[in-house]
Amino acid sequence: MSAEDFFRALYEAGCSRLRELNALDAAIGDGDHGSTLVRGLKHAVTAATGARAKAFMRASGGASGTLFGLVLHEIERHLDNGDDLATGLERACARICDLGEVGPGDKSMVDSLAPAAGALAEGKSLAEAVSAAEEGRDATREMRARCGRAQYVEGGGVGHLDPGAISLAMILETLARRPVP
Amino acid sequence: MKKLFNDPETMVDDMIDGFVSACPHVRRGIRDPRIVVRRRNRKNPDKSVTLLIGNGSGHEPIAMGFVGQGLLDANVVGDVFAAPSADLVLEGIREVNGAAGTILLISRHSGDVINGRAAAMLAEEEGIEVVPLLMYDDISAAPPERRADRRGAPGTMFIYKILGAAAEAGWPLRRLTQLGEDVRERTVTLAAAVSPGISPLTGRPMFSLPDDEIYLGMGVHGEPGVGRVRMGPVRILVEEMIQRLLDDRPIAAGGRTAVIINGMGGTTMMELLTVWAETVKALSSRRVRAIAPMVGSFVTTQETGGFSISLLEPDDVMLKLWCAPSDTPAFPRIELTEECAA
């Protein structure tokens, strides 16, 4: 898969789930997660080779644009240059934990990303890593947010999936060409 | 509220157009029109460390007004009250970087820290030597034992100026970074807001405050601080602020401190000079000399009424650099004013 094909497929997946992502975010955040993601992806599709994740950061904006952009940056390097995906996702995960001051169990994108990066690092297949991300995503339903706007919602968002964890799983599902549910 | 803009979509770029054509010190960057760089007296970036900062707009003249000789090499301009994106800050780093290395100043606010540090990480991946230096000084944001959790406030201008002068004098990257950390450890700021500014984005006041109250410790975007106090003579307000600043970071009797009195945008020079006069008295009564003041509206939030007091207890090197000449659109000449000390 080329980086261009990946970003186009991800843009289409994001568009098809736009309402769902915004609605979930409205329950525990400011309700624009899907929109900011899709806005960034639209620019990534048409950006120059090697500059797609950066175009995403610019157009998506905010801290979330940066944190998702760091994941997309590693995937772009993997697709463009053949850089090792496991190393890249582990690096992105470490950076996100550092910059966002989050860790596993805090109800964030890290709950999908960390298990997937871990699975790849153990030599498991991309399909198995996607499954690990999906399990991590589903586990965010019972988690209480410690950061972001969700922490200020009554109950810390318990009972809702984390929109960031959903999008992160969607990114890896798209990379594995797995049909988006 | 009436505001003189064309279109929310272009207001930042319209302002930069005006700025670069009014000020011969600066021009737009080659890599991106949201980068403002030095036009005249540029450093050789292979010989001198370059300095830049990214920040949301709406706070002018900071930081584009401080681009020039003896201060910043570039400013990366974000949207109104929004940190510039990581890729844009990366372009700014590339624009100024050379073999001597670069310091990316970051005023500690969530978006600026995440995007700035991410930009530094991406730059390092490209083999660029860049040090992200976090700046924080607002004593109302966290107690002294959690200094590193404080947010950036107008006292960060001590770091801009002192590092800018030292970089111009050829200090190497490691020594400059250490100097910046040393200045940070000696700097404290406390703000007092009296009336809200109007957001250019929403056209509405950014906070509300009864006519007879002052908000002590408010951040530059209206973030919460110490709390509300009764409006009264400025003497009493300044006295309380100096007491809180010195409780946080004591200065021994017989000592001296450099001072910044910063207006938030809607407070007159007449009022700010009164604040400075009261600051001199309040410090003098504690046998601390107030020296080398910077008085004016430099870090603003539209027409917000209020001011902040920043103190830096400098060593001789810091004081010399603080008072060194610079040539930028908005940074004033700092005079020693030893005679001010009563």
List keywords for this structure.
heterodimer, A: 181 residues, mainly alpha, 68% helix, 0% strand, B: 342 residues, alpha/beta, 6-stranded mixed beta sheet, globular
Radius of gyration of chain B: 19 Å
Percentage of residues in helical conformation of chain B:
25-40%
Q: Which structural class matches the secondary elements of chain B?
A: alpha/beta
Average residue-wise pLDDT of chain B: 95
Write the H/E string of chain A, N to C: HHHHHHHHH
Low-confidence stretches of chain B: none
Strand element count of chain B: 12
Helix content of chain A: 55-70%
Strand content of chain B: 15-25%
Rough shape of chain A?
globular
- Main sheet record of chain A: none
Number of helices of chain A: 9
Biggest chain pair contact, residues each? A-B, 17 and 17 residues
- Classify the oligomer: heterodimer
The helix tally of chain B amounts to 8
Order of helix and strand elements from N to C terminus of chain B: HEEEEHEHEHHEEEHEHEEH
CA-based shape of chain B: globular
- What's the rounded overall pLDDT mean of chain A? 92
The number of E-state strands of chain A comes to 0
Please, could you describe this protein's structure?
- The complex is a heterodimer of chains A (181) and B (342).
- Chain A has nine helices and no strands.
- The two termini of chain A are 20 Å apart.
- Chain A is 68% helix and 0% strand.
- Chain A has 181 residues and is an all-alpha fold.
- Chain A is globular.
- Chain B contains eight helices and twelve strands.
- In chain B, helix 4 packs across helix 8 and helix 6 packs across helix 7.
- The model of chain B has no long low-confidence stretch (mean pLDDT 95).
Short description:
The complex is a heterodimer of chains A (181) and B (342). Chain A has 181 residues and is an all-alpha fold. Chain A contains nine helices and no strands.
